[in-house]
From TrEMBL:
Residues of the Enolase C-terminal TIM barrel domain: 25-266
KW Metal-binding (keyword) present: yes
EC number: 4.2.1.11
Source organism superkingdom: Eukaryota
GO biological process, one term: glycolytic process
Identification of the protein by name: Beta-enolase
InterPro entries tied to this protein: Enolase (IPR000941), Enolase-like_C_sf (IPR036849), Enolase_C (IPR020810), Enolase_CS (IPR020809)
Keyword annotations: Cytoplasm, Glycolysis, Lyase, Magnesium, Metal-binding
Essential cofactor(s): Mg(2+)
Reaction catalysis annotation: (2R)-2-phosphoglycerate = phosphoenolpyruvate + H2O
GO molecular function, one term: phosphopyruvate hydratase activity
Organism, as annotated: Apteryx owenii
Amino acid sequence: VCKAGAAEKGVPLYRHIADLAGNADLILPVPAFNVINGGSHAGNKLAMQEFMILPVGAGSFREAMRIGAEVYHSLKGVIKGKYGKDATNVGDEGGFAPNILENNEALELLKAAIAQAGYPDKVVIGMDVAASEFCRGGRYDLDFKSPPDPRGPTVVSIEDPFDQDDWEGWQRFLAQVGIQVVGDDLTVTNPKRIQRAAELRACNCLLLKVNQIGSVTESIQACKLAQSHGWGVMVSHRSGETEDTFIADLVVGLCTGQVRAPGPAR
């Protein structure tokens, strides 16, 4: 229907979405490439679900895509050199799925790949913990201990660090960290949960998935609600995504400035 509306008006799809959202000026987003897969998206034993790179220092979207692709291929070389060729198989979201246990080890792989590609000042790291996947009876079931390393890579964006119903955990975490805390399972692009999360100060960024809320109109409403609370908004694909390009137009039309994408594998 949205595409038909754009065709009827004779304007690009992103412009039609921008008009629906009341946005006159457009911006291109910073892509967050999912380059290491774990959790339920891979066959390895890595607890955290996604490790991402964000080329925040790029001067244009074209440059961001190039940097992302270069770091991705650099990462392949780093993984192959350390674990062998078989470790470069990819997971559900196009990221590599090496058979590693420690989350810090995945972060160190990213740090090495970013440095090797020559972009230590232009690329930062994000994570999707997907904590609901390993929360059992109110406890987080991890079969290893990984104490924080102050010398390790800095993570600037973290998604779903606690179970979707662990509101107190979210509140404490956001109050203690000075980074972007993204709600996906917490909010499920639902205005009622977004409002509650805002009132409780549980997160400061919405992960927006169109087919999670069900319509473009509701997606626009969810985006506007999140932004009214001073949140960031990151438009996202879904695991096992098709090659449909609609969310590319959506993120430009909504002017969210962030889009989560799979690894540039194909």
